Description:
This protein has one helix at 25-28; strands spanning 16-17, 38-44, 47-53, 60-69, 72-82, 92-97, 103-111, 114-118, 127-132, 138-146, 149-159. It is mostly beta strands.
Amino acid sequence: MLARSLVVVALSLGGCRAAPSAVADRELGAASPAWLAGVWRGEQDGTVCEEYWTPLRGGSMLGAGRVLVAGKTVFFEHLRIEGPELGAEHWRYVALPAGRGSTAFELVELEPGLLVFENPTHDFPQRVSYRLREDGSLHARVEGIQAGVSRGEDFYFRRAE
């Protein structure tokens, strides 16, 4: 399902690539996921995907996502991005699809306008990335191995504010 695998992620600005355990908050300097705050909306073939992110405060951002088909919510998830201030060893993205069972993805890559989180032990996706494009739109991608097959899904959003 389009949204089941949509695990939208955020952090931004910097310029490092490292193993999951190597990108600590102190290494991010002034970089932050703050650019993701706001309302994002994408529509394709009658399916609407929306994400809402609170401003970064107290070491976290809270988010929610939903997918609508023919005006009905067919999927939702609770999201959060949390930094070391909240007890995590590193910045991470946590998703609770349908409000059940959380899965954490660790920050593994950070460049200006790019965030990549991974969890190699998760069923699908194992990798979630967000890229802020030059036109101000957001490209989210989830990818990994599912049932022995490599696959990925792309999602495009625009600010809805």
